[in-house]
Each structure stands twice: as C-alpha cells, then as structure tokens.
Design a protein that fits this description.
By secondary structure, the protein is an alpha/beta fold. The protein has 17 helices and 11 strands. A 6-stranded antiparallel β-sheet has the order 4-3-6-1-2-5. It has a 5-stranded parallel β-sheet with strand order 9-8-7-10-11, sandwiched between helices. It is elongated, with a radius of gyration of 25 Å.
Amino acid sequence: MVARTGLYTLLAANVGVVTFFFVQAGFGASNALIVLGRLAGLYGALLMAFQLLLVARLPWFDRRIGMDRLTSWHRWVGFSLLWMLVTHAVFIVFGYAQASSMGPVDQLVDLAETIEGVLRAIVALALIIVVGVVSARFARRRLAYETWHFIHLYTYLAVVLAFTHQVAVGTTFTASSTAKTYWYILWGVALTSVFVGRLALPLWRNLRHRLRVTAVVPESDHVVSIYITGRDLDRLPARAGQFFLWRFLTKGRWWQANPFSLSAAPDGTQLRLTAKIAGDGTAALRHLKVGTRVFAEGPYGAFTTLHRTQPDTLLVAGGVGITPVRALLEELHGHVVLIYRVATDQDAVLYDELARLAHAKGAQLHLVTGPAAPDKLAPQELSRLVPDVADRDVYVCGPPGMTTAVLRTLRELGVPKPQIHAERFSLAG
C-alpha cells in the first residue's frame, strides 16, 4: 500500500511540476490548438518517463506492488501515453496549419523540413503506434511472446528520439534553466532505473550465481520439472511464490525468455521450476541436457508471504498455477487450506507431492474437478469448504478467468481486500 501510494503521489506531484513550468514559460502562441498540443506533449513526456520506471523491474517496487499490478499499470499508462502523443501531434499540426493557412499534410511536411527534431518525433510516434497496435488484445493473442517482446524493444528507440525532440524544441528546455534541470533529472532517473533493473542487476546476479541445469524430470505427459543449481544461492533474494524469466543457453533457445514460477521454496542450494508443455518452446524443455547454462532475470512478483496479515491461510490454485502455490505451501506456517481446481484428476500437476506436503504440515487439501460451469468455487461452495475464509489470508493463482471468478467470490463473502493476494498465471506461468 505504501509503495502504491508513493507512486501515485510521485506521478501527481510531477504533473503539478510540469504544469507549473509550462505556465511559467508562457504559452508562446496565440493559437489554442498549439498551446494544448504543447501541454499534451509535456504530459506525454512525463508519462513516457513514468512508463520507464514501471518497466524497470526494480526489486523494491516489484516485491511490494507485484508484477501483476505493475503490468496492468504499464498497459494503462502505455495506451494513455499513445493517445497523449497522438493528441500532441494532431493539435500541433492543425494549430500551425490554421495559423499558416496550409493543409495539415503540407504543414506536417513543412514542420519536419524546417524545425530541428520534428522528424525524429514523427518516427518516435510511429514506433509507439506500432507497439500500441501489437499490444492490443486482438493482436497480442495472435503473436508469439518472443515476437511481441522483440517489437516492444523499439520503444526504447522511440524514447531516445522523443527525448532529443524535447531537447531541441521544448519550450521548458529553452525558457528556464530550472525546468531544464528538472527534465534532465527526470529522464536520468527513468533511464538509470531501466539500466539497473533490466541490464546491470540481471548481469551481476548471473555472473555471481552461474546457474546450471542439474536435472530434468517429467512429471506427466505434458509437464516437466527442471532443477537448477549455482553458486551462493543462499544469497539470491528469491522467495516462494515468485518467478523468473528463464533463458536456457542452448543453440535454439538462448534468445527466448519465458516466465516460470518456482515450484518449490528456495532452500539455498537449488531452484525448481515446473512447466506445462504448451508449444514448441516449452516442448524443448524436455530435451535440456544436464549442465546447460541458465540466464535468469528475477526474482519477480509480490505473491509471497511478505504481505500476510492473518495467521491462517487459504490457497486457491487452478491448473499449472499450482506451481507458486505449492512453493508457498512449503513456506507457510499456521493452518492452511489448499483448494486445487482442475478439469480432471489427470490435470492435477504435482498432486502426490502436494498430498505428502499437506499431510506433513497438517494442511487440508481439496481437489475440485469438473467443467468450468457450474462454478464449483462460487460463494456457497467456497464457504462450505472454508467456513472461516474471511479470517484468512487468501492467495489465488490460476488462469485469468478462474482468478477473476474467485476474486469476485471472495468479495461477495466479505474477505477484506488486504487479505487477498492474486497472481493471474498469464504472465508468471
């Protein structure tokens, strides 16, 4: 809660600062469209810097806010940024066209030819539009994760082009040394955060821990567990419930990064991930050789015991979303109830292992099978399985549809929001 409030406050404060510097610099044009376009451009630049902070994957934010929420914010900020920059471009072009009596297309060409930095801004906007289109749900469902990720990398080029455009023509850069210092600090913090979180920290951790595959164990026809060891794993800040982006450094896979949760609590000597075979990329995991080098980014996620508020816990997992929940079960203290929702008994990944672990910890394990409808975790059914659900912390991890339905049930049963912790397994699994 503190981290979320801090981010909201930070963004609101910077909106105020940007508005103040804009007014202080003077409108610089009698045309209202140009004035509004310039203000939209400044807000767009601020959103772009804030977006960099969201994608930096800084451990402090990630552990307290969670990748799910950061990803959701990233999506909303991204589309807000896109529309803010489109508004900036349209208002500026039509404003100048109105003042010069030129057509909008001719005016755009004239601005690109006569004003330094405008052409770079056009290219930046085009790149951001492409990224926005491929991030829309209809396109995202049709793209492989690696393709979508590769296209997203062009955002960094757009950021550089947009920044140089702002330096060249931004009124707050030319009218005030204080405002100029502010913008340089803002962009410097944002870009440094990305460098540290996305490059420096992962490189340092992998050089330190030197991860390698030690075993590949088929759990079923469609599920495989991979055991990984390395140096000084007791100093790797990983917790049960978190996930990594894994790269297995073989000839055909070194460039692919896939998110998989830890399926066992880290013990300082080895890590384990368990993956469902869902395509060519995950199918290749079965054929990894012992000794294969591993490059891991993480750990990520706030789906941990760090946020517990009650002594007892309810764990709800769906499908292969059981993997972080199984790790949590190993770490949790107090009375635990685990509900595992699958279509058939054969879909219950790691069930024998879960049963043994639940017995050893005195936990209750409920395997709920059957089709999605009727909802077997509706309020009446869930309260029958766990009568004291409102007095427990509840961890939910599974497919987005199941997770949404369970969260709705928990709200209807009056479970306080601070006691609910969710991970939609579209990213972490």
